[in-house]
Amino acid sequence: MQDTFSQALLSIASQFDNPFDLAAFCYDYLTTRITAQAAFIGAYIWHNENSRRNNPNIGELDRFCMAVKAILGEKCDTDTERQRKLIRAVRKMEDRLEDFGTPEWNRCTLPFFILRAVDEYVKQTQNERTESRPLNQFYDDRIFVYANAASSMTDEVIKNTVIPSVSLHDELEYLIILERKDIPEEIKTPPRIVKLDLGTDDSERKSAVERKELRVAIIPFACRGMTQIEQDEGALFHIEYVPGYIEWGVGRALTLLHKALKEKANIIIFPEFVCERTIQKAIREELERLSWKSPDITAGLLLVIAGSRWDDGNNIADILGYDGTLLGRQYKYERFSRGKDEADSLIENLKDPGKECTIVEIENVGNVMTGICRDIVAESYLARLTEIFTPQFLFVPAWSPSVYKGFKGQMERITARNFKTCSILCNCCEAYEKKTPNRQEIGLAVVPRKKKNIVEGKTNRILRNCCKETCECSSCIFTIDMRLAYFSKEQDGDYITVASEQKI
After folding, report:
1. 3 state SS of 56
2. pLDDT at residue number 1
3. Rounded to the nearest 5 degrees, what angle is found at the Cα of 347, between the Cα atoms of 343 and 350?
4. Cross-sheet strand order for the sheet of 236-241
5. CA–CA separation, 201 vs 439, rounded Å?
6. Cα torsion at 248, 251, 255, 258 (round to 10°)?
7. Which range scores top for mean pLDDT: 2-6, 95-99, 463-467?
């Protein structure tokens, strides 16, 4: 006789110290038994009044879902007491389950409605959690569970204009499920979601968020040579900094940081490579100093993406909060490569590619992700994560001799796949110096737009003037103003409008 779901649940009940371990088990149980998720959902979960037959258990399963949600919200003396109540509720539902369809898929409705109960529980308790995610702590070999608690800028205008896919993942509104198979084997740690809290006194920050108007400053940094390629074995290479760069770079970075703050930037992005460890530390300490001594200067700031640095064999970006707090790091995963077994071929020699991935949750903005240069190439690890976590923003520090050809298509595909992501790329002027000094595209901003009921990505080019001759004495930044556009369901247009300007 095949084990019942309650028996499977009982066998590992000791691991259910929180609802997210329970959700991980239920999702794992379902994905190992449901070979066609859309067929299961169509026959056993959804109903149609015109159908010759619907699942006769739906009413009881809805009541079971509410009972499980109540158990999760109860104050129990011990976890064991909650586990026992849950097992009793499952056994009671098993006894009431009428025969329908195939026995195994019929039984699978129980873990599905437990997942739905946890989803509802997260909605009810979303403001009570401050810890980093993933949230499951014990049942975490193959499944990672996150709370999708942040409302996004575009939720209200996009929700009713797209057709969602039919899958277990998309049946959940407040839970995000990441499967181990979606993480490359060499990466041992799944992404973290960290929450950027806005305090009661953060009126300027909150005002920008509530207006759904954000200003992003990208900082191309400088036209001069700052980095150099050093050969390792074969085509492998790493980055080193030219003599004197670090001392000069600290002053340059702080000058540009203040220029961006003077322009009331809510997000500031430095490019790839230029923020060596000492420079990143100087940016962090300056933000901390300003938040204590001159909080009016950083009153509207949310995040600083401190470009990236080449450090001990890795390409690492620091993600900083408005007060200099290190929220997390992003390790580059996709290696830069050039040529194929040619005399000057190159492959980036990353020691721990993708070691850390940090997603920042900002209420009323959404999830914010960072990808370093080639990390956003089609079908990459990070591109897959944008489908799962559906970030409102993807910020891309880059160092590339071509941004329009190298990134436009990839960034547009990311938006077209999840309907909501706005991607902003910040390139470094140094990347153009030797071969294409007059190239104008220094950044890209891709936003979702509706065209004939299809959501696609629209690219806005960020252009620099021929400013090389003034670069040393008059460093520049570029501001990108992004504003949510409201229009009727029947209208076509850009969900986010974009206006950019070079500030010298």
Report:
1. coil
2. 37
3. 150
4. 227-231, 236-241, 346-348, 337-338
5. 44
6. 150
7. 95-99
Three-state SS at 211 = helix
- For the stretch 217-251, what's the b/e string if a residue is b when 16 or more beta carbons lie within 10 angstroms of its beta carbon? bbbbbbbeebbeeeeeeebebbbebeeebeeebbe
Distances, alpha carbon 188 to alpha carbons 1, 127, 328, 412, 444, in Å: 38, 29, 16, 29, 32
Classified as helix, coil or strand, 253 is helix
Q: DSSP code of 362? A: E
- Cα end-to-end distance, the chain, whole Å: 76
Please choose, from the candidates 71, 143, 53, the residue with its C-alpha nearest in 3D space to the C-alpha of residue 114: 71
Query: How far apart (Å, rounded) are the C-alpha atoms in residues 500 and 53?
Result: 56
Cβ atoms of residues 301 and 217 within 8 Å: no
Distance in angstroms (rounded) separating the CA atoms of residues 415 and 445: 11
For residue 440, which amino acid is it? Q
Whole-Å CA distances, 436 to 439, 444, 465, 504: 6, 18, 14, 21
Give tens-digit pLDDT for 286-317: 999 999 999 999 999 999 999 999 999 999 99
Helix ranges (DSSP H) in 362-479: 381-389, 404-418
Cβ neighbours of residue 472 under 8 Å, at least 6 residues apart? 222, 224
- Is 74 exposed, middle or buried, given 0-12, 13-18 or 19+ CB atoms closer than 10 A? exposed
102 closest CA partner among 34, 51, 49: 34
Task: Summarize the confidence of residues 488-501 as an average pLDDT.
Answer: 84
Q: Which residues contact 484 (CB under 8 A, 6 or more apart)?
A: 153, 154, 157, 212, 213, 495, 496
- Nearest CA to 333 out of 357, 309, 312, 310 is that of 357
Distance CA(356)–CA(354), nearest Å, equals 6
Tokens describing residue 88 = 């009793």
Helix, strand, coil % over all residues of the chain, rounded to 5: 35, 25, 40
Kindly report the CA angle at 116 between 112 and 117, in degrees rounded to 5?
Answer: 115
